[in-house]
């Protein structure tokens, strides 16, 4: 299967992408991984992307599209893939369609993880990270530490990242609504959109997604 995963920040796309890719035996291709791999390997696209990133500028669509195209042409993606974070806007969605059509392929589904904005803010703004070990992550509501502000595992100080502040989260949501949300209507018009609720336990959402994709 060839699937695009969409949804607002905080919808759990990364978590669901990993489970779905494993269940479907297809590679999980995320924009973040593409950028990290190309930059660390020093590819032409990676060097160009890093120059924009170091200057604090957005990486142009053509670079992101080029990275995605290279990755989708790898042998392990011949039988399908799950795209997470790409396409990010309608221009990228149109470029993806052109790539697939040129290769004699097409998307099977676009899975939209739906979650209310207030829930997104609650999920992200409630995260607390350990200063000693960033792998120790807590949540003031869903995974509260035994002692407020103290890591259960190493007693390090827990803090809220700047990226997780409510103001930053709402700004990220605004960017999502403006740039990415239009691709939902784009794919809906093609009959590819499958929308599921992203509320509940991780395994419940995965099952919901798998059932929807089977249909």
Task: Summarize this entry quickly.
It is built from nine helices and eight strands.
Quickly give the CATH architecture: 3-Layer(aba) Sandwich
Distance between the termini: 13 Å
Neighbour order of strands in the largest sheet: 2-3-1-4-8
CATH topology: Rossmann fold
User: How many extended strands?
Assistant: 8
Q: Determine the strand fraction and express it as a percent band.
A: 5-15%
Average predicted confidence as pLDDT: 93
Instruction: Provide the CATH top-level class.
Output: Alpha Beta
The coarse silhouette is: globular
The largest sheet, given as strand count, sense and whether it forms a barrel, is: 5 strands, parallel
CATH superfamily: P-loop containing nucleotide triphosphate hydrolases
- In which range does the helix fraction lie? 40-55%
Q: What is the domain tally? A: 1
What is the SS-derived class? Answer: alpha/beta
Number of alpha- plus pi-helical segments? 9
- Helix-strand topology string: EHEHHHEHEHEEEHHEH
> What is the gyration radius calculated from CA atoms?
18 Å
Regions with pLDDT < 50 over 5+ consecutive residues?
A: none
Describe the structure.
It comes from Streptomyces katrae. It contains nine helices and eight strands. Strand 5 and strand 6 (137-139) form a beta hairpin. The two termini are 13 Å apart. Strands 2-3-1-4-8 form a five-stranded parallel sheet, sandwiched between helices. The protein has a three-stranded antiparallel sheet with strand order 6-5-7. It has a single domain, classed as Rossmann fold (3-Layer(aba) Sandwich). It is 48% helix and 15% strand. Helix 1 (13-24) packs across helix 9 (202-214), helix 2 (31-41) packs across helix 3 (44-54) and helix 6 packs across helix 7 (166-180). The protein has helices at residues 13-24, 31-41, 44-54, 61-72, 90-102, 117-125, 166-180, 182-188, 202-214, and strands at residues 2-6, 28-30, 81-84, 109-114, 127-130, 137-139, 158-159, 193-197. The protein has 215 residues and is α/β, with parallel strands linked by helices. The model has no long low-confidence stretch (mean pLDDT 93). The relative contact order is 0.17.
């Amino acid at each position: 299967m060839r699937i695009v995963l969409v949804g607002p920040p905080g919808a759990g796309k990364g978590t669901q992408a990993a489970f779905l890719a494993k269940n479907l035996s297809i590679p999980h291709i995320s924009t973040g991984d593409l950028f990290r791999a190309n930059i660390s390997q020093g590819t032409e696209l990676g060097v160009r992307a890093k120059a924009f990133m170091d200057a604090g500028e957005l990486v142009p669509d053509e670079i992101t599209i080029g990275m995605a195209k290279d990755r989708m042409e790898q042998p392990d993606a011949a039988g399908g893939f799950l795209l997470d974070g790409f396409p990010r806007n309608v221009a990228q969605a149109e470029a993806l369609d052109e790539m697939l059509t040129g290769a004699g392929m097409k998307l099977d589904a676009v899975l939209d993880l739906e979650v209310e904005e207030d829930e997104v803010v609650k999920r992200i703004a409630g995260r607390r990270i350990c200063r000693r070990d960033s792998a120790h992550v807590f949540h003031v509501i869903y995974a509260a530490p035994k002692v407020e502000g103290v890591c259960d595992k190493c007693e390090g100080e827990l803090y809220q990242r700047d990226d997780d502040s409510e103001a930053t989260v709402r700004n990220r949501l605004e960017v999502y609504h403006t740039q990415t949300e239009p691709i939902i209507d784009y794919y809906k018009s093609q009959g590819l959109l499958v929308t599921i609720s992203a509320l509940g336990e991780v395994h419940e959402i995965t099952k919901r997604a798998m059932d929807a994709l089977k249909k």
